[in-house]
Amino acid sequence: MATNNVPVIPDAVMIDAVLAQIQQGLVDNQNWLNVAFGRCQILQKMVNGKKIISPNVY
């Protein structure tokens, strides 16, 4: 069962292509899993003098 809850980078190559296959395989084979994300990037920014750290995915 394919799902649109797998955000995949278009024309992914190397590690991103492998992660896309893993993500799709997880969602297709685990009925309790609704969304699977690949790599994330941790971003830091200053807001009103406070450092805000957040994980961000494609």
Explain what the structure shows.
This protein is of the alpha+beta class. The protein has one domain (15-57). The protein has one helix at residues 15-29; strands spanning 40-47, 50-57. The mean pLDDT is 84.
Brief rundown of the structure:
The chain is of the alpha+beta class and 58 residues long. It contains one helix and two strands; from the N terminus they run H-E-E. The chain has one domain.
Write the layout of secondary structure elements.
Blueprint: H1 15-29, E1 40-47, E2 50-57
Antiparallel strand pairs: 1-2
Q: How many alpha or pi helices?
A: 1
Mean pLDDT: 84
* Strand order in space, largest sheet: 1-2
Instruction: List the helices and strands in order.
Output: HEE
**Helix/strand/pairing category:** alpha+beta
Q: Which key terms come to mind for this protein?
A:
58 residues, alpha+beta, 28% strand
